[in-house]
Each structure stands twice: as C-alpha cells, then as structure tokens.
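PROTOCOL LOG
Step 1. Enter all chains and additional molecules of the complex.
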Amino acid sequence: MKLHTVEVLQRERFGDHALLRYRWTGSPPEPGQFVMARVASSTSPTRSLDPFLPRPLFAHDYDGEAMRLLFEIRGRGTALLAGEGTELLVSDPLGRGYTIDGGPVALVGGGVWVSPLKLLARHLARSGVAHDVYLEIPAAAPEAYAAWISGSYPDATLVPTGGASDASRAVLESIGDLSRYAGLYASGPAPMLDAVKRVSRDTIPSQLAVRERMACANGSCYGCAVPVWEAGERAYTRACVEGPVFPGEVLAW
Amino acid sequence: MKLHTVEVLQRERFGDHALLRYRWTGSPPEPGQFVMARVASSTSPTRSLDPFLPRPLFAHDYDGEAMRLLFEIRGRGTALLAGEGTELLVSDPLGRGYTIDGGPVALVGGGVWVSPLKLLARHLARSGVAHDVYLEIPAAAPEAYAAWISGSYPDATLVPTGGASDASRAVLESIGDLSRYAGLYASGPAPMLDAVKRVSRDTIPSQLAVRERMACANGSCYGCAVPVWEAGERAYTRACVEGPVFPGEVLAW
Amino acid sequence: MVTRRATVVGTDPDVDLGVKLCGILLATPLIPAAGTLAKETLGEVKGVYGAMLPKTVTPRPRAGNPPPRVAEVSSGMINSIGLQNPGLDRFLENLTDYDVGLPLFVSVAADTVGEFVAMCERFAGEERVSAVELNLSCPNVEHGGLQFCAGPGTVREVVAACRVPLSGKPLFAKLTNEGVVNNAVAAEEAGADAVTLINTIPALVLDPRERQVSLRGGLSGPAIKPIALRAVYEVSQVVGVPVIGVGGVTSGTDVAEFMLAGAAAVQVGSGSFVREPQEMLEEFAAYLRKNGLRARDLADALTER
Amino acid sequence: MVTRRATVVGTDPDVDLGVKLCGILLATPLIPAAGTLAKETLGEVKGVYGAMLPKTVTPRPRAGNPPPRVAEVSSGMINSIGLQNPGLDRFLENLTDYDVGLPLFVSVAADTVGEFVAMCERFAGEERVSAVELNLSCPNVEHGGLQFCAGPGTVREVVAACRVPLSGKPLFAKLTNEGVVNNAVAAEEAGADAVTLINTIPALVLDPRERQVSLRGGLSGPAIKPIALRAVYEVSQVVGVPVIGVGGVTSGTDVAEFMLAGAAAVQVGSGSFVREPQEMLEEFAAYLRKNGLRARDLADALTER
Ligand SMILES: Cc1cc2nc3c(=O)[nH]c(=O)nc-3n(C[C@H](O)[C@H](O)[C@H](O)COP(=O)(O)OP(=O)(O)OC[C@H]3O[C@@H](n4cnc5c(N)ncnc54)[C@H](O)[C@@H]3O)c2cc1C
Ligand SMILES: Cc1cc2nc3c(=O)[nH]c(=O)nc-3n(C[C@H](O)[C@H](O)[C@H](O)COP(=O)(O)OP(=O)(O)OC[C@H]3O[C@@H](n4cnc5c(N)ncnc54)[C@H](O)[C@@H]3O)c2cc1C
Ligand SMILES: Cc1cc2nc3c(=O)[nH]c(=O)nc-3n(C[C@H](O)[C@H](O)[C@H](O)COP(=O)(O)O)c2cc1C
Ligand SMILES: Cc1cc2nc3c(=O)[nH]c(=O)nc-3n(C[C@H](O)[C@H](O)[C@H](O)COP(=O)(O)O)c2cc1C
Ligand code: FES
Ligand code: FES
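Step 2. Run joint prediction.
Step 3. Record the structure below.
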C-alpha cells in the first residue's frame, strides 16, 4: 500500500471525536470513498509499524486543496491519528463511493458515520441534485460534537435520539413519506443501515456505506468480506474494492 | 522494571551524539551506574512498546537536580531518545559503579564511552582525590562533539587518534609512567579496556566499565553475561547487578 | 550464465538483483506471498517482483469464512480468510489476467491427495505456469481439528504424488513452521524442487471487553520474522533444494536477512499491506550496493563468527 | 470456599484477585515466568504475585551460553541464556532466599528421565516447595539438534516418572508451542496436575551489516501472545487439568485475555522487563471491577458469539 506523507493543516477535538484536515493535491475523493491513514513518529528514523495496520477513514470533505477526515477515537490507531506532533501518512482515495443519479434524494446518517455525507452533499449540490439531509445526534454525544455537526450540516434535519436501534427508527420516521425521493443514501450504525435497507426494499433504491475490518485495502487480502447476492447466491465480496458503498438490495445481511 | 516519567530539560545534538538532561529527584547516581531509558509517544493512550526494550545508558553527570546522559545515536532506540516531542521514561540509577579509594588516580576514556567519567571526576573532586583525565578523541568524531568534549572536560588531556586499536595505545602512552597513580579508572572501546586491563595487571589496580546487551537490568534474565574469574574458575556474572564496573583482574576476557 | 537485470525505477541499474530459482531466472528475488496480492493491484508492482504468485486455488470454488476475517496484533495481524477463491476452472479461464511479463507460479491446495494430483495434472500442460507451489499448511482450513499435512508422512505422500504429473515443472512445497525441518526433509526426499517457509502460525485474538474470541486464524507480519528466519536457516542447513523465505518482511534489510539465512528468493505478504514493495526493493538494492554484493551471492555471504 | 484477598497497593480491596491452582490458593493469578525474576528483585514485587517461581534448576551447575545472550526484535526479544544456574545442591541450600510469604513453585530441567526423577525426589520432601514445574521445553539446550521432549512420548515418560516421587505435590508440565495439544494430553494422561503453556519459540536474529547470525534462541514477548493464547484456548478445550498461561503478557488486559482463554493463572516473563508487574495487576483489577467479575470467574466468562 502506497502511503503519502501529507501536511496536517488542522486538528480539532470534540470530546471523543476528531477532525483532521490535510493538504491533498492527489486525485480528488469521490463521495463514499475512504483513505487508509496512519501516523509516523517524525522522530523515528525508520517508520514505526506500531500499530501495524493503517486505519480506514471516509473522506469527510474535500475543497480541492484540503482533505478532511472526521472520526471517533476508539483505540490506539485513532488516538494516534488525533494526536499532536506526528507525521500523517495517507493513501489515495480508495474504493467505490456513492453513485449520483437523479434527485431528489434523502441522505440519512447516524453517529460518527455521518462523515461521508458531507462530501456527498457537496457533490449533489454541484450536480444540481436536490437533497435533504437527516442526521441522528445521539443523546450521549458530547455537546461540542453535536454543536459542530449542526454547524457543519446547516441545512440538515437533526434528530436527537437515545440508543442505537431506537435511533434508526426515529431518523427514518422523521423523513416521513419516502415516495418524495428518488433514492436514499445512508451511512450510520448497523441497525440504521439495516432499517434503511428494509424500508428501501419495497420503495426506493438505497446506497449504503458499510464498514468492515480491512488490512490491505486494495483487494488483495479478502479480509473485508461483505455478504452480497451474486447471481442469486450469497457470496462474499470485498468492501475495499467493490464497496464500501453498496446498493441496499445487493447486501445479503 | 519500574520506569519514571521525567521532565526533559535539554536536548542537544553533536553530529551522531546526543546529550539529554532531565529533572531527577530520585536516588542520586553513583559514578559508573547507568539508567534504562525509553521514550513514550506522549500522544499514545497506551505506551508503545516499540522498540521493545529500554536502552542502558551511563549516568554522565548529576548536579543534584538534573541528570545528564551522553550517547551515540546508533539504532532506533537511541534515535528516538535523541528526538523531540516524546516523553522520557527512565529507571532509577542501577548497577555497581566505580569504587573511590585513595589517589592520585588516572581516568582513561575513549569515544562515547567517556560518558561515566564526568560524574566520576566530580565525585573524586568532592572526595578530594587527585585525578588526571586522559581522553581519546577519534579523528573521525564530528567537530561539534570534539569541541563539546573538550569544553566538558576542561582539565583533561585530549589525545586525538586514528583507529580503535591504535587509540588505546596512544592514550595509554600519553599517560607515561603509571606508577604515579594508585589506580586506573577506564571506560572506552573494547580494545582500550583490554589494554588498560593488561597494563594494570602488573602495575596498579584498574576498574573498567563494561557494556553488555541487557534486557531486565535487575539481575533477573542473565542476559548481560560477563566472563569473570570466580574462585579461580571462569564463570559468567551479570553486568547489570555485579557491574557494569569491574576490577580489571576479575574480568576473564 | 546471464541473469536478467531488473529495471527498477529509482534503483541503481548496476546493482544486480537477479536470482535463479530452480532454473527460472527472476529479475528480483521478491515474490508476492500467496494470498496477498490481487489481480487488481498487479499494475502497481511492475518491476518489483521477480515472479507472480496468485492466491491459492482449490479444486472447487470456496466462499471463505464469515467476517470478521482479520485482526491486528502487536507487530502483525491474524487472518482467517478460509481460502476464498473461484475454484480451479474459473482460475484457469482467467489465467491471462496474470500476464505481466513475469514467470507465473500458482499455489494450490486440496483436501485429498487425489485432488492435489488432479490439480497438478491440469497445470502440467499450462504453458503460462512456470511452477506450482503446494500449500500444505493453511491453518484456517481444518479437518476435524487437525491441519491437513501435519506431519512428514503426509508431506511425503502429497509431494511424491504431485511430482508425477508435474515432471516438467518445478514443484515447491509450502510448509508450516510446526515440524518444519522434518517436513522439509520429507518434501525434498519426495521430489520437491524447493520449499517455501513459512505459512502463518496458528493464533488467536480475544476481545476482553466483549469477552469473546475475536478471531482464530494465522499470525503473519514482523512478529513471526525471527521464527521464519530460524526455519529458513535450519532447513537450509539440511536440505539441498532452494528455500523460499517468507514471514514478516517489511523492508529491504529484511529481504537481505532472509537471503543471508539461506533463502534463494523471498516472498512478501502482509508487509505489502503496510509498506510499498517498491520501497523494500529499493532498500534491498541500496543494501547490496553498500555491501558490494549481488542478490544471488547473499545466500553464501553469511560469515561465521 | 475462602479465597485469600490480595492486598495490593493502589488496588480496590473489593476486587477479588484470588484464584485456586491445584488446590493452592494464590492471592493473585500472576506468577513470575521461570527464568525472569531474580532473588535480587523479590522485594519489588511484594503483593503482586500469587506464587514465587525461580529460574529453572538443573542437577548440576550450568555456566550458561557465551554472550551475547539477548537480542531485541519487533514486539519482543530473543534469549539464549543456556539455563545458567548454580545446580540443585546450591539451589536447595539457598531455598530460604525465596521465603517471601508466597507458595514456592520450582522449575526443574534435566537431560535424562532418571535425572528428572532424582531432582523430583529431592523436592518431594521439601516443605517449602508447593509445586514442581517440569521444564520440558527449553529451546536453548539442545541435544544433537533436537530438543529434549520433542514429542508426546517423551512428555508422557518424564511426567509419569516424576509423578511417582512427587505423589504429594502438584506437578506442572511446561510445554513448548510445537505440538502443544498432543503434548498437553500426554502430560495430563501421565498424571500432570497442570500444564504451563508456552515456553519461548525457536527463533533467530541476523545482523545484516556484519552478515552474521546474531543469536539463535527463544522468542518471547508480545510477538508470541496470539500464539500462546491460541495454545491456552485449544488445550483448555481438551484437557481437564488447569492451564497456566504464559507468553507476551505486558498489561492487565493481557492477563484477562489469558484467563478468558482458559488459564487458571498467568505467568509474566519478558513483559516484566519493560513494565512493572504491579501496574499490570492494577490494570487487571480495574478490568475486573469494570466488568463486575472475580479473577476466578474469568475462565468461565468467555461468551460465544
Ligand atoms: C471504509 C471505512 C470507512 C470508515 N470511516 C470512518 C470514519 O469516517 N469515521 C470513523 O470514526 N470511523 C470510520 N471507520 C471505522 C474506523 O476505521 C475504526 O473506528 C478504526 O479503524 C478503529 O481503529 P482504532 O485504532 O481506534 O481501534 P482498534 O480497536 O485499536 O483497532 C484495531 C483494528 O481493528 C480495526 N477496527 C476497529 N474497529 C473497526 C471498525 N468499526 N471498522 C473497521 N475496522 C475497525 C482497525 O482498523 C484495526 O485494524 C471506517 C471504517 C471503514 C472500513
Ligand atoms: C551499562 C551500559 C551503559 C551504557 N552507556 C552508554 C552511554 O553512556 N553512551 C552510549 O552511547 N552508549 C552506552 N551504552 C550502549 C548503548 O546502550 C547502546 O548503544 C544502545 O543500547 C543502542 O541502542 P540503539 O537503539 O541505538 O541500537 P539498536 O541496534 O537498535 O539496539 C538493538 C538492541 O541491542 C542493544 N544494543 C545495541 N548496541 C549495544 C551496545 N553497544 N551495548 C549494549 N546494548 C546494545 C540495545 O540495547 C537494544 O536492545 C551503554 C550500554 C550499557 C550496557
Ligand atoms: C490475508 C492473507 C491471506 C493469505 N492467503 C494465503 C493463501 O491463500 N495461500 C498460502 O499459501 N498462504 C496464504 N497466506 C500466507 C502468506 O502467504 C505467508 O505465508 C504468511 O502471511 C507469512 O508471510 P508475511 O508475514 O509476509 O505475511 C496468507 C496470508 C495473509 C496475511
Ligand atoms: C531471559 C529469559 C529466561 C528464561 N528462562 C527460562 C527458564 O529458565 N525456564 C523456563 O521454563 N522458561 C524460561 N524462559 C521462558 C519464560 O518462562 C516464558 O515461558 C517465555 O519467555 C514466554 O513468556 P513471556 O513472553 O512473558 O516472556 C525464559 C525466558 C526469558 C525471556
Ligand atoms: S481489505 Fe484486503 S481485500 Fe479488502
Ligand atoms: S540484564 Fe537481565 S540479568 Fe542483567
């Protein structure tokens, strides 16, 4: 995996969440694409391979010069990425993102998984596709994060929710009549994706961003298996090259 | 091994050599004692164990408040120790150092191994033991380092030398008649220690600082084996607890 | 003997990276480890590898194991892919996908000796295929709790049986670390032209928060490098056939270490997920230049102390 | 059943760290791994360990291997100490050195079955000694290239023979990872009261600059943790006797992982060189508190998914 050393322009923390902005002049990300990211201690003569694997993170936003990543700090890898004083190494944008067709469309997101919807909204606007954004803000989310989200998605309908399974229902209910839309774009916790997939089956097409553990992120290792329907049979495909965005009806959860 | 997080007061580089000064209010080092040192990325939630082992480094100097380490940057561990932006973790002073008896004595050092002689000279001065310092400055040493050494040991006789085996001879020759001294204290490259051990056999007692690879540094692992004479038999003893300073006649090289 | 020179971008053209493996000239000693380089990525690695080696193929298609399939550990990773592959027929249909101007090696696995032989028969007549690597060691495909090919008896049987149809092509036996010396000797005696050491080591990751087993699978990466080096070194002392080293390579120095330990060629697996093989090759070339050595001299360049 | 409570500085007194191992109550599940805690350091670890376990003792004094004896590798180290020890007689003379108010386990190794038995006879009558661990696995002491106790046959023979004099005391068989499941079953059948898994894994470090083998020895540390966890997990499924887990523990979560995998107690080796066992115990206590568990419940606290 080719990783580029990039210049970090900004690091922000909102509770357990972090925003990372870096200069990016490589190929621009499509919405729903992701990058592999790791740190290298700038004092290290040989790059440290601890933690061993880079971390997959969605392209949150891109303005032609700077890339933004938005992520939750969970373990060592994300903690290091959010930390100061380290060099940032990132891959090119990877995978297959959202496909933009006609509108109007609804964007549905939850938790930190809202990340790819920002760039998607930007592309939809650029293509003149009408879209509404519905985001879950969990009650447990730190205030700073909630404030930042509402600032970052000024036109979005924010749905404050309690727990995860409840969340999906509340967010979908806030949309009301789905027949207004030509498509549903989703990125959220598993129960939300499930719910979106279910409602879309009988109504309108959906595109869901999935997350699987990844190692190579280039199709080599078959580590990021996602069950899909292939010619009527359940089969595993690779989230990193065939996804991470899949049409709802393809996923064989 | 108990390691303390300490405040780094100063980091200096002279070519491939580095000086590290940190606040130390624990037990004061005896000359010839060493510490185990490692870095911890301050951004890491769990301390990184890469590289796995801490590095043994002589106490170079101590003024009651700050400890100084002087070392050559060789591999990853020492490069990280010399680098900026990392937390420093150090052990208490460890091992058995030089024993101070009557004077006058000669201190003989070479290369970066001169390190422990600074603290030794300080202690000798404090105890009123007359001493002369003879240091090899290899021709290959970076100028900044040579300059620093001569500044740091203002009263020392500096002997510029070519290679390692030549060095030992040149330095010893510069001492002249050894019978002026009651003892020889040495810390230098292996050939120098060898030479000191040899000349001291028939003349005056010597104390040599040895260097062996270490893991536990507390006597547990038997990794730091040094061959010594024990009741007439050759046996391995542990540099970390029985040394690192040994009387020349005890070493069974 | 003429050795092909690799033309590697950023590498001194005067450094001779070529090696010979069972009579096959490789422009560089690097080979992708089976299961760690997809067709999709072939373009990226032009000039880096000396041969191509796709993921292990089995007689019939295999769906593979349910996710999660990978987990990270200290200095490495664990995988449990379960040999997902399209099966022999589809593999053969699409063999031209691997036409990148390099010798093509194929890795095969099967449940029975008969199936191993049947696969080798299919490859025997395949001009595109330069050598066959028998995967005798996958820790993720289990048969009643025991690994296929656990001991020298089975190794001997499979290798001897596959030797027959493959009379014209080099046959490599890829072995696990467990019992590696005895198994390598058995493989050589049964007619293997080379042994590939080592496959991943059975390992387990637990999630202490969820109090669940996260993954049972095979350990790879730098964590196993000292173990793989030991296997290569010990086996090189006792067998006459070339050894192909694999396990934890992430740098050019690692490549040099494997060759000093006795490897004639070196496979790169999980290391290619975290660094660029191209960079490793450049580092290896720099090492050779600095030491005034050619790649093919390294196996004899170990000095006693 | 009354379990002793550990009084650990900085640890919540309400967390129950006690475990029972072959009828012996341990105040904490931590035990120093054989060969990794010297007498000189006993003072530092009061209240941390549940038992004491000195370096392996052999019938006669052993000088050990020439230096270098240790080398660093990714996430671990390699050692080749060569069982340096003063021999059985001196060890017994100085047994009171280990009187620190904890059950004393002793680790023994020998070249022949007869010598193993002779040592066990000496320990059988030693009141100070609560249990004997047979080191059946040292990778640094070789006999004609093969390790002593390579297979289940030898394990069975040694354990059965040592069982006789030690009828009153628990007997642990410490096994290497190679063939661990079969060897553990053999040890249990021959009468071992527990199995200790795993010893270091044969490995090698090369110096590419000097083009020399730096060290052949045994790999320990976090690099082997997933391998050791797998061994503990697999063996726990098939033997009825307690398993003592060892390999790569450097944190309290690691201790919990070994116990979830099935270990009744956990040994800490090279991890104690780089972190404080005291800190690991505190982390372990914090883990138990957070999860509302007692140490002795962990072995049954693994949930299926
Ligand atoms: C395509 C893709 C895009 C993603 N985008 C985002 C994003 O924009 N924002 C965000 O907060 N998170 C995102 N994630 C999840 C994110 O990658 C994980 O939270 C992160 O890898 C955890 O690393 P860690 O070091 O904090 O945790 P650790 O627990 O230390 O990670 C250990 C290993 O598990 C993997 N892992 C752990 N959790 C996950 C997870 N949920 N999904 C995948 N791998 C995991 C890590 O990558 C690593 O290999 C994305 C995942 C994928 C696959
Ligand atoms: C008691 C003692 C005191 C020392 N004091 C000093 C000092 O004051 N100044 C100084 O420059 N050096 C000193 N050294 C040597 C210093 O410890 C090594 O140069 C250093 O450990 C190399 O680490 P690295 O990460 O740079 O090299 P690497 O090659 O990455 O080290 C790999 C491993 O080998 C060990 N190692 C490598 N070289 C040596 C060596 N020469 N001696 C011991 N272990 C080694 C390391 O500790 C580590 O475990 C001392 C050594 C000992 C034993
Ligand atoms: C994701 C993954 C998939 C693998 N698949 C195969 C395979 O199909 N056949 C095989 O023989 N080895 C397979 N291996 C093992 C590697 O070829 C190699 O032997 C092992 O990973 C050690 O090398 P490394 O440390 O460089 O990864 C696989 C390894 C990984 C990490
Ligand atoms: C320096 C050192 C010395 C060791 N000596 C012994 C020994 O004498 N007897 C023994 O059974 N195991 C010995 N071992 C192995 C350990 O007891 C333990 O099984 C192994 O190191 C794995 O655990 P770890 O990763 O926690 O170190 C030794 C290990 C090390 C690192
Ligand atoms: S992460 Fe390797 S195939 Fe997707
Ligand atoms: S370093 Fe462990 S005994 Fe000296």
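Step 4. Note key features.
The first strand of chain C starts at residue 19 and ends at 21.
Confidence is low (pLDDT under 50) at residues 1-10, 139-147 of chain C.
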